């Protein structure tokens, strides 16, 4: 069973990710994880914090000589900003009142109020430090290990931005790797150069107004065999698992597979992908409205999933709220903040999708070593080819 957990607060000493269930013999390096961490930090619209952090992964366990050992892989990512927060975030305490940096003017749209009520904390810092998407550095590190595993089998996972605010990229004729290549060059991770310029303007305009913007990201996956996930039980369905993983990303409020919501307004004949057969290609489709999943299983076509990201909750021109302690009507607190995090979500979504796919991969082809997984995968590929 593949699983992961993260720990750590936004302004605490470090973030930690533990990934359990990877096979032995997978080549991994901190440099590989760091490349993905750097991609997560980038993106037009991020705040000052991302200029402070360097996000260097350090293995604490589970890896020797550049290969996994089969045990839990533990990764540490230090927070450089910790130096500025030692007093406020001291785990040993007591925290001096004048240095506590308390948050009581809870922000609409953030976890502050619901978390303070639930955990009986009169300082919302106790909530926001963990609710913060700084946590996603741990997730991206964990996800990078699973991207590495999928790479071994020729699976490519490509995250990119489809829209920011009201600006949408034009539908693309590019192949998924081309989309990835173009997005990598864009400050907003969008493969459409014209839309990129308009998205940058949209973010500048929101910043000027003390406001924030959201958008839509897409993850494309090529190289998947048919049969990952299963129709037989609700919690084994690949689309359900992908939706949960994507919805768990901070600020994601909607997920679509393939045509998604658009399919609801079309006739069946304009939605379902007709099936063809060629002796060399096997079964194939001429369209992919299903986004590569039918019946909770991958169907061999490229996977296409999208996530809708709401605008950032912290506003430099704050909304009305109530102080947790005094109950006075005030303006919400302003914590140093991003204006737009959509480009980063494209990278986090890659990690989330890769984790679910690797989990399903190991369920189907599982083994204790990479060589064993490879044998099991090869046997299945031959079975499908000979079908
Ligand atoms: C990469 C990333 C960066 C984010 N940066 C901020 C930020 O700077 N300020 C903020 O208020 N929210 C930010 N958010 C969103 C909050 O973390 C999120 O809205 C909050 O945890 C509440 O969760 P919910 O939106 O899922 O309900 C960010 C989200 C992501 C994915």
What does this entry look like structurally?
It is a single chain. The protein is built from 10 helices and 17 strands. It has a 5-stranded antiparallel β-sheet with strand order 8-7-9-15-10. A 4-stranded antiparallel β-sheet has the order 1-2-6-3. The chain has a two-stranded antiparallel sheet with strand order 4-5. The chain has one domain: Chorismate synthase, AroC fold. With 387 residues, it is an alpha+beta fold. It has helices at residues 30-41, 49-52, 112-119, 125-131, 136-151, 176-185, 193-208, 238-247, 342-365, 370-385; strands spanning 3-7, 14-20, 57-61, 63-64, 67-68, 73-78, 156-164, 167-168, 215-222, 252-257, 275-278, 282-285, 293-294, 297-298, 303-309, 320-322, 329-331. The protein is globular. Flavin mononucleotide is lined by residues 47, 110-111, 131-133, 136, 249-251, 310, 312-314, 337-338, 341, 344-345, 348.
Secondary structure layout:
Blueprint: E1 3-7, E2 14-20, H1 30-41, H2 49-52, E3 57-61, E4 63-64, E5 67-68, E6 73-78, H3 112-119, H4 125-131, H5 136-151, E7 156-164, E8 167-168, H6 176-185, H7 193-208, E9 215-222, H8 238-247, E10 252-257, E11 275-278, E12 282-285, E13 293-294, E14 297-298, E15 303-309, E16 320-322, E17 329-331, H9 342-365, H10 370-385
Antiparallel strand pairs: 1-2, 2-6, 3-6, 4-5, 7-8, 7-9, 9-15, 10-15, 11-12, 13-14, 16-17
Helix pairs in contact: 1-5, 1-9, 3-4, 5-9, 8-9
The protein binds flavin mononucleotide.
Flavin mononucleotide binds at residues 47, 110-111, 131-133, 136, 249-251, 310, 312-314, 337-338, 341, 344-345, 348.
């Amino acid at each position: 069973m593949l699983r992961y957990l993260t720990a750590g607060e936004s302004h605490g000493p470090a973030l930690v990710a533990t990934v359990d269930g990877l096979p032995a013999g997978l080549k991994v390096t901190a440099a590989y994880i760091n490349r993905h961490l750097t991609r997560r930090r980038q993106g037009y619209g991020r705040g000052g914090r991302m200029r402070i952090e360097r996000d260097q992964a350090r293995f604490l366990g589970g890896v020797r000589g550049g290969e996994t050992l089969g045990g839990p892989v533990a990764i540490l990512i230090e927070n450089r900003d910790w130096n500025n927060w030692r007093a406020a975030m001291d785990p040993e305490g007591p925290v001096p009142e004048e240095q506590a940096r308390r948050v009581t003017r809870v922000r609409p749209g953030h976890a502050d109020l619901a978390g303070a009520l639930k955990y009986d904390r009169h300082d919302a810092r106790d909530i926001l430090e963990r609710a913060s998407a700084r946590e996603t550095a741990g997730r991206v590190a964990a996800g990078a290990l699973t991207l590495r595993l999928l790479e071994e089998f020729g699976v490519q996972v490509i995250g990119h931005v489809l829209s920011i605010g009201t600006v949408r990229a034009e539908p693309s004729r590019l192949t998924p790797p081309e989309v990835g290549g173009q997005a990598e060059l864009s400050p907003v991770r969008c493969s459409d150069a014209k839309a990129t310029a308009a998205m940058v303007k949209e973010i500048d305009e929101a910043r000027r107004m003390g406001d924030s913007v959201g958008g839509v990201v897409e993850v494309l996956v090529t190289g998947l065999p048919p049969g990952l996930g299963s129709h037989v039980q609700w919690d084994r369905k690949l689309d359900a698992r992908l939706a949960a993983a994507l919805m768990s990303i901070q600020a994601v409020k909607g997920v679509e597979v393939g045509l998604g919501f658009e399919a609801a307004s079309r006739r069946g004949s304009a939605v379902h992908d007709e099936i063809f057969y060629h002796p060399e290609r096997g079964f194939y489709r001429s369209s992919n409205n299903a986004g590569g999943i039918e019946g909770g299983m991958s169907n061999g076509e490229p996977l296409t999933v999208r996530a809708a990201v709401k605008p950032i909750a912290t506003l430099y021109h704050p909304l009305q709220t109530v102080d947790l302690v005094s109950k006075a009507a005030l303006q919400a607190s302003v914590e140093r903040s991003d204006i737009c995090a959509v480009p980063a979500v494209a990278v986090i979504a890659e990690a989330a999708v890769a984790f679910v796919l690797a989990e399903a991969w190991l369920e189907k082809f599982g083994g204790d070593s990479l060589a064993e997984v490879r044998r099991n995968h090869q046997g299945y590929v031959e079975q499908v080819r000979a079908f």
